[in-house]
Amino acid sequence: MSQTLKEAPLTTRNARAKLDLGLYWRGVDPDIHLGYRKGKRGGRWLVRWYEGKGVYRQHAIGTADDALDGDGTHTYSFSQALTAARPLAQAALQLARCRRSRSKKPLKTTSPCGSGERNSLKDRAACAGIIDLG
Q1: Is the dihedral of CA 48, 51, 53, 58 positive or negative?
Q2: How would you class 87 by CB atoms within 10 Å of its CB: exposed for 0-12, middle for 13-18, buried for 19 or more?
Q3: In whole angstroms, what is the distance from residue 122 CA to residue 89 CA?
Q4: Which of 9, 53, 65, 115 qualifies as a cystine partner to 15, CB 3.0-4.6 A?
């Protein structure tokens, strides 16, 4: 049985400063959540998505703007993290659907996308043609 998500106040620096150390989530879309992990020296933004059959996956977005202003590249405000979370989770969900529908035979390719290296979620989504990194 699934649990109801308790929305945490994550939208401003002041609201996040009042939180205890730990992990907090906000719903973005029905199967996508934006997370904030508060640590002793600041926080990090995460995105989590539901793949089905009780399986959740998550990916780090970047550092929260608790001490520095968000630049949208390495340090993110709430709105910047929210903007980055949706396409990452949607790309991951589409990759998961592609993997499930693909045959079990290994692909023979010379592109870096099929090299077997551990690439970031963004790299894998770009290789699959789901998002454009340019």
Answers
A1: negative
A2: middle
A3: 10
A4: 9
pLDDT per 10-residue tile (average), the chain, 134 residues: 68 88 91 92 92 88 85 87 90 82 53 52 61 50
> Are the C-beta atoms of 30 and 86 separated by less than 8 Å?
no
Distance of alpha carbon 97 from alpha carbon 48, whole angstroms: 16
CB 36, CB 46: distance < 8 Å: yes
Residue with tokens 């529908």: 101
Distance of CA 100 to the CA centre of its chain: 20
DSSP 53: T
For 1, which DSSP code?
-
Backbone phi, then psi, for 24, in 5-degree steps? -130, 150
Structure tokens, 134: 């340019």
Global pTM reads 0.70
